[in-house]
Specification:
Layout (H helix, E strand, L loop, with lengths): L1 H29 L8 H6 L3 H29 L6 E3 L7 E3 L11 H12 E10 H14 L7 H14 L3 E3 L6 E7 L8 H5 L2
Antiparallel strand pairs: 1-2, 3-5, 4-5
Helix pairs in contact: 4-6
């Protein structure tokens, strides 16, 4: 009797489980496929991460471009212009804006710009130190600048040359910097330049 009861209970459980399985399969078949997390990539036939990487690269480019624009705008400064002041029933009065003083020049940055435009590396190259000073003065004239004092620009150039492994050879008027030569952009030294002190 107990055996029959156990068998009947098993058949009931089995029938109940089969009913639940049929119901679950019907619910699964009725479910819609979830929308894609990357519909644009799917439509273009790409992997989703390709679109993400492209978007990140474009955002980075936009931010860098904006930063470069703002730096260029800031570097040019603002010119002092008269500002008109209008009062009711009164003539226009021009108030002169006070000009901003020119920023102090950084000898280190100027030495870097000068050397970058005038020299190129060459293991066996030699450039006379006296010629470097003369060429610096001509370089400043071309840019409408007053040359920095020799000790100031000389110290900055010396530090720059040492930092890139160039060395001084000789003393006095015969001293040279070894390991570089004049670039193709450097102007030729003329006798007129040689007379400038």
């Amino acid at each position: 009797m107990e055996l029959e009861n156990a068998r009947a209970e098993l058949r009931t459980s089995w029938a109940k489980a089969e009913g639940e399985l049929v119901t679950a399969r019907a619910e699964l078949a009725a479910m819609k496929v979830p929308a894609s997390a990357t519909p644009l990539a799917d439509r273009l036939g790409l992997e989703g991460w390709h679109v993400d990487v492209t978007a990140a690269a474009l955002a980075s480019l936009a931010a860098s471009s904006l930063a470069a624009f703002l730096l260029a705008l800031a570097a040019h400064g603002w010119a002092a212009r008269p500002t008109p002041v209008v009062m009711a029933d009164a003539p226009t009065v021009e108030i002169e804006a006070t000009p901003t003083p020119a920023p102090a020049r950084d000898a280190t940055k100027e030495a870097d710009r000068y050397a970058g435009s005038m020299f190129r590396p060459r293991r066996t190259g030699r450039v006379k130190i006296a010629d470097i000073r003369q060429a610096y003065r001509g370089w400043c004239r071309e840019r409408g600048l007053d040359p920095l004092p020799d000790p100031e620009i000389g110290s900055a150039l010396n530090t720059l040359f040492a930092s890139v492994g160039l060395r001084r050879h000789g003393e006095g008027a015969d001293a040279v910097i070894v390991g570089m030569e004049w670039s193709h952009h450097a102007p030729l030294l003329t006798d007129a330049d040689a007379t400038i002190q």
